[in-house]
């Protein structure tokens, strides 16, 4: 008898425990969602700076870039370091050794080389955005991937995730020019720079919106860099305005590492600088310089690989 | 009933030995704590420099942007894995020899997980409280780091409960038998944390229920913990990491290195607390067999990983494999392969090395090798260039080595402090086994010769 009662008591307590565990499990799933629901209701979307909704829906730009490799000789012809990088460094106060746009020299079959200016691809399936633990990097409706350095914790998982190596970390105290201090920080221009966070090309959205070409496209001596808007199907390198879809199709454009499925917004037209008179067997380019940094004091500089 | 029964010789010995460190504290203990605190102080100094100047003080740079810290994170998660996991597996399979081992195993988990989290904080430049705040408030469940944080906190909570539940009867035993020479604060500690355990029938039933629930719960949590750690790497597009097998690979490696840590810890316990009669050659042999079996599993994972990659040589894999097998990474890789996978199997299988010293050596080898393996995964994976440039190099700086040493020191300090607070062996469980054993007046009967050592057997005898 007593045994039976004991057993029933045990059964009952077990049932109660299981019920409790079930409730705890449900709560554990539900609780993390609560702040999210609250913020959603409050209308603040995570990560993005609050932008005012225009009264009439305006046309949404969908920015893209086309780089015509037939016109890129790594600036061998003018005997200077790549001017896209130089202008970006100078215009955006990019510290050494970052090169937000970097002309890599790829081998071609047959022994020659081509230059491939590599920039943040503004992927539409961005691996870096997917892995960020705090929502410090996100895709804008215009298709640009931005970083909020005030949110970033510097874990560098996005750098591990980026298959193009287009993300850079401020390992030391980055040099900050005097001009930077007059600017209110925004993810769209990323200055003044902070230490211990991640930076990358942001497509200069403020310049685009003002109707100007970003520094890299302005500075290219061969006019190889087109900025484009998928919405209006138009592309320009500052010299001519062309139909984007035609430009891409007629020149068999491709995207870098397309097989990865990242869906970049940067297109390349194959070539090795032939239109600007480059011999593909002339190898090498001059190293990038960071002349603006001479004006700053107290910066702790770092090099590419350790020590 | 139990209190009336006089203790036999081995039970008296067990009580004396396990309660000794609770009754009095030797000079050696203070010396050890002082040395550990010294190392930690050095680490604090190095960390303060890193906070002041940034990660420029480390060897990491843009191309190899993770290094020792992340390798150590994976290492300590691995160490934590085996503790509770091995203990739970042994409990579930009712392995009778487990009793002296489980406490040590559970302590490893509880001590290792906070250290793993510490290395995540070291890896970030920002102040730790700011990092924790952002990780909590802005947590995005889509990110592998968030998964890691959820898994880590869940696993730590479960492991603490698991350790504590098994501790309650022992704390009560210590409370009742510690004697008058113990300090008031220690008596207060034992009394408070024994939460009124009187070894009543209902109490025992609830305790057993809690133990059963916890040992089943911690298994999936432990597996999840290490799987999401692997996914930190496997969720990226880097070729050496882009591997669906990474989850089980890491789980296997974690149990492997964790068993090694348990062996080292019980060997130290045995020496320091003179527990030779309770932690016997048999325990080392059984853990050694487990170690050898897991070495075989890891060997198989390695072969299966490399053969599937090497057969096709897709993308840059030929370059990666070359670097691992003949290039700059080769000395490390072959040290891992021969020293950490082949040597332990040989040591356990050869009759003249199959002894306590041999198995401890094998365990040390395994842990060094598994550290190397994690280093190779992190640095080797990031070292494979994704654009055409001179291959980047990485060598850790003194700051990174100092923080590594400090992390290990904190881990040891936590273990030492836990050992000072609670009995090192599961006294009550071992006493009960001894009472049920056939051989009453000798040391605990040899393993495998005891009737009624399973849970059912014990319940029946009661």
Short description:
Chain A has 307 residues and is α+β, with helices and mostly antiparallel strands.
Protein described:
The complex is a heterodimer of chains A (307) and B (462). Chain A has 307 residues and is an alpha+beta fold. Chain A is 25% helix and 14% strand. Chain A has helices at 2-30, 33-42, 83-92, 127-131, 157-161, 205-209, 215-219, 244-250, and strands at residues 63-68, 102-107, 113-118, 137-139, 145-147, 168-169, 198-199, 225-229, 234-236, 241-243, 266-269. Chain A is elongated, with a radius of gyration of 25 Å. The model of chain A is unreliable at 41-47 (pLDDT under 50). By secondary structure, chain B is mostly helical. Chain B has helices at 9-23, 27-53, 68-92, 99-123, 128-137, 144-177, 184-193, 201-234, 246-272, 281-312, 317-325, 330-349, 356-383, 398-421, 427-436, 455-461. The longest helix of chain B has 34 residues, at 144-177. The radius of gyration of chain B is 23 Å and the shape is globular. The model of chain B is unreliable at 438-462 (pLDDT under 50). At the A-B interface, helix 1, strand 2, helix 4, helix 5 and strand 6 of A face helix 5, helix 6 and helix 8 of B.
Keywords:
heterodimer; A: 307 residues; alpha+beta; Alpha-Beta Plaits; two-stranded antiparallel ribbon; 8 helices; elongated; B: 462 residues; mainly alpha; Formate dehydrogenase/DMSO reductase fold; 16 helices
Measured between the Cα atoms of the first and last residue of chain B, the distance is 11 Å
Which structural class do the helices and strands of chain A define? alpha+beta
Cα-atom Rg of chain B, whole angstroms?
23 Å
> Biggest interface in this structure?
A-B, 57 and 54 residues
Task: Please list the strands of the largest sheet of chain A in the order they lie side by side.
Answer: 10-9-8-1-11
Please tally the β strands of chain A and state the result. Answer: 11
Q: In CATH's first tier, which class of chain A applies?
A: Alpha Beta
The CATH homologous superfamily name of chain B equals Formate dehydrogenase/DMSO reductase domain
Outline of chain B, from the CA principal axes? globular
- CATH fold category name of chain A: Alpha-Beta Plaits
The parts of chain B where pLDDT drops under 50 for at least 5 residues are 438-462
Top CATH class of chain B: Mainly Alpha
Beta content of chain A? 5-15%
- Describe the main β-sheet of chain B briefly: none
Give the assembly state of these chains: heterodimer
Helix fraction bin of chain A = 10-25%
